[in-house]
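Duplicate of earlier report; FAD dependent oxidoreductase domain-containing protein input re-posted below.
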Amino acid sequence: MADKYDVVIVGGAVIGSAVASYLTSDPDFGGRVLVVERDPSYAFASTGLSASGIRTQFSHEINVRISQYGLQVIRDFAAIAATDAPGPDLHFHEGGYLTLANSETAARILRENHAVQSACGADVVLWDQDELSRAFPHLNVADIHLAAYGRSGEGWFDNTGLMQGFRAKARAQGAAYINDEVVDLVTAQGRVTEVILTSGRHVSAGTVVNASGARAAQVARMAGLELPVEPRKRTVFVFDCARTPQGTATVNGGRLPLMIDPSGVYCRPEGRYFLTGAPPLEDPAVDWDDFDPRHEEFEEIIWPALAERSPAFEAIKPIRHWAGHYDYNTLDHNLIVGRHPECPNFICANGFSGHGLQQAPATGRAVAELIVHGGYRSLDLGAFGVERILENRPLLEKVVI
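Output:
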């Protein structure tokens, strides 16, 4: 006989644990929650392999609002995730993001995005070439037409701390976590009725939440559903710098931001070192178990771009690297959240395209509201529903790193 749970969450990393935490925190929810996680070490979870950033520099208002809520949670996380003891300090480094545009077309997009961000109250400013040079004198700015800089509300933080804090909170409030893997979903009359695990265990589910990251399409297919989500590999490098520019900025106490070069290469401080990465020249879907770093990207893409951008980055040496996966939404690079119209008790929380960590708090809260109250009560994430996928109505996010 199958075990019975009101909600079964497939995936226990930051998205699944955020859903479990918000769900079990809701005083109107009295059900049983099971979180199924295939790898409790989270060694290959996108959560722990990300660059751990949060920004308000998006092109859609709702994405800005999602990040603003995420920032609030990050700052207050010790209290939010408290159990018998305070939750973890996420060590938020409010270094800001710096986005550079080297053409009039790119500058126009920055202006359009800035209008959206400003309307939401985001603390982002636009700088011309002279203003940029004064703020960050180590940069070569001769080709830059415009820059956008987040003076506050952007930066990087402890990625695993956020996940483990949500996980600990959910468990303290009664959510059950098991080390197992979902291998099939049984459906009847347009609903998921049972979750079958690799251990042979059958679990009766009132609602199933797909929080399986880059494996989202694989899980959806078990219910006869299709999602445009696939694993895309991103390699992250940490490098040492012979002549560090850290401390040379004339803003933010001399701290450098996460810089997004027009080439797509990004770079930010990481203690005494720097962390960097770039979109690959070719970006095919990869196998779910392919985590081999693309070593050549440092020499062929990243180093040339950084050396061109700053003399300080001419002499750098990689000291560490790893590869992680984006759960990449091929339709429009935006999250997919909500009940699937073809299977109403199957809820999606997928396709974050590299933004899952920063969007986890708002997504966890939204999915919990959907389950408990039948609709969104805080931020309305209806625009990111599965309906747009089925109708091929992309809501394109222009700012994807």
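The mean pLDDT is 96.

Merging into the original ticket.
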